[in-house]
Amino acid sequence: MRPSNFKYLFLFVCLLGGQLGLCCINEYRTLLNGKVVFTDADNAAPFGRFNLENNKYLSEQLHKADSIYKATGKIEDYSDYGAMLVYNGQYLQAKSIFIEIESKTPGLYATASNLGTTYELLGQNDSALYWITKAIKINPNSHEGSEWIHLKILEAKIKSSGDNKYFLTHNLLSLDFGNTENPENKNNIDLLKLRDQLYHQLNERMSFVKPQDQIVGQLLFDLGNVNAMTIDVKSGLQVYQVAKQYGFTSDLLTKRERHFKTLQRKANFRNSTEGWAKKNPSTALLILIVLLIAFVTGLIYFTKRFRKRKQQTG
Question: Any idea what DSSP says for residue 39?
Answer without folding.
Answer: E
